[in-house]
Design goal:
Elements: E1 15-19, H1 28-37, H2 47-52, E2 58-62, E3 72-77, H3 81-84, H4 87-93, H5 104-109, E4 114-120, H6 124-134, E5 137-139, H7 142-148, E6 153-156, H8 163-172, E7 177-180, H9 188-201, E8 204-207, H10 215-225, E9 232-238, H11 248-259, E10 265-270, E11 288-293, E12 299-304, E13 313-318, E14 321-326, E15 329-334, E16 339-342, H12 350-362, H13 372-390, E17 396-397
Parallel strand pairs: 3-4, 3-6, 4-5, 6-7, 7-8, 9-12
Antiparallel strand pairs: 1-2, 9-13, 10-11, 10-17, 11-12, 13-14, 14-15, 15-16
Helix pairs in contact: 8-9, 9-13, 10-11, 11-13
């Protein structure tokens, strides 16, 4: 993950620091040689440290490198905590930029072939700080920004109630790839409209469920698909602070991802303790307890009380072994007595990898790794908790139908 400090790293103007994308690995040795043999060696930090930082790290590129490869213009709607890497906004939430799995700003600005052009925010302070941090101009009105600029990539990094309007507008303006914050929307009906708009225009819509792009999660998904844990018998997840929409969206999506199965039914009870939402009184996003049923009557347990403070975790149990995910690490234990421990991703943040894979997609590399309809199914599972609670904890079948699809998940 790139440094959280808003102060830029100053290097001679013909050099810039870039995160190393997986598609760039084959260039690493050549570029490392150029970095340590070039005539700027005396003015640069130790090249080995530069290449190691961020673990696969930060890459040195000349501005005229890759002239034959296409460049992509990008913008960001929403310049707050995760959109603009704005620590002032983070302070209001009691969180730090350095604790995030990437930000929209750093993932755009650090890619070697993405040109971050501008951003938009209603907040004058955020705009000013972003201009200072990123060295680009800003707009107070996101509509004016879309009217005035042409983009290949746009991040929608606002609160969930604005996602549908903004994503649909981006698609209608011809934006080729839209990276939208999670959850996809506040109702499944709005999510349906977003997907339909992007399908109509051919725009790629990606939802920021970073675990989809975590190499450990992808490796675990393959292990499970190959029968490495045997027949799955149960799974469970818990996290602190409730907020099924804002936090649960990551956990529900990860559950469905690693076992390669969509949720089929949900039973749940909301936690109505009334804990204030850190994003303000305009949001009411309770936690809760319940179960998710997958194919073959496989059950997943959910424990997410509003005032709980257990670390976020997930456990998948099969007839031949068990996988436990916590803090980005994955611990495996098998019935034959062996075990493995997979450390967290160290080469780049989840959001850096998302942008790398968006660029690969725009380059024509083939289908994108994450079907946006899976994000819709994740929102359906969350909304089903609300529907089930209203029905006294009754099982709710998925996909949702009729008025169920307009159930509001009032997430920030």
């Amino acid at each position: 993950m790139l440094p959280a400090s808003p102060e830029p790293v100053h290097l001679p103007h013909q050099w810039v620091l870039r995160p190393l994308c997986e598609t760039d690995h084959n260039r690493l040795s050549t570029e490392a040689t150029q970095a340590i043999t070039g005539d700027l060696t005396d003015t640069l930090p130790d090249p080995d440290n530069i290449l190691r930082s961020g673990a696969t790290g930060m890459r040195l590129n000349r501005e005229n490198e890759q002239m034959s490869e296409p460049r992509y213009r990008s913008g960001i709607i929403g310049l707050g905590f995760i959109g603009g890497a704005d620590q002032v906004s983070g302070d209001a939430l009691g969180q730090t930029v350095s604790g995030l799995d990437g930000t929209h700003y750093y993932s755009h600005a650090s890619h070697p072939r993405v040109d971050l052009i501008c951003g938009s925010s209603r907040d004058a302070g955020r705009r000013h700080r972003f201009e200072e941090r990123a060295g680009v101009h800003t707009y107070a009105d996101w509509v004016a920004m879309l009217d005035a600029e042409q983009f290949d990539i746009v991040s929608v990094a606002t609160y969930a109630p604005q996602h549908a309007e903004m994503v649909i507008a981006c698609a209608e303006k011809g934006v080729r790839a839209i990276l939208c914050e999670k959850p996809i929307a506040t109702t499944v009906a709005d999510a349906d409209r977003m997907v339909a708009a992007c399908e109509k225009t051919g725009s790629l819509l990606v939802i920021n469920h970073q675990r989809r792009f975590n190499l450990g999660h992808r490796r675990l998904r393959q292990l499970i698909a190959d029968g490495g844990l045997g027949t799955l018998t149960s799974l469970s997840t818990e996290w602190p602070g409730g907020r099924l929409g804002n936090v649960g969206t990551h956990m529900f999506d990860a559950m469905q991802m690693v076992i390669s199965q969509p949720a089929q039914a949900v039973t749940g009870i909301l936690d109505l303790a009334g804990k204030p939402d850190c994003r303000g009184p305009g949001f009411a996003d309770p936690g809760g307890w319940g179960m998710i049923r997958f194919a073959g009557d496989l059950l997943g347990m959910v424990e997410a009380s509003d005032y709980g403070f257990a670390d976020g975790s997930m456990t998948i149990i099969g007839s031949e072994g068990r996988a436990s995910i916590a803090g980005g690490s994955i611990a495996l234990s098998f019935r034959n007595g062996t075990s493995e421990n997979w450390p967290p991703d160290a080469d780049m943040s989840g959001m850096d990898r998302i942008v790398c894979e968006i660029v690969d997609y725009l380059d024509g590399a083939g289908d994108f790794a994450y079907d946006v309809n899976e994000a819709v199914r994740t929102l359906e599972a969350i909304a089903a908790f609300h529907v089930s609670h209203a029905r006294g904890g009754a099982w709710v079948q998925l996909p949702l139908a009729g008025d169920e699809r307009t159930t509001i998940v009032n997430s920030g």
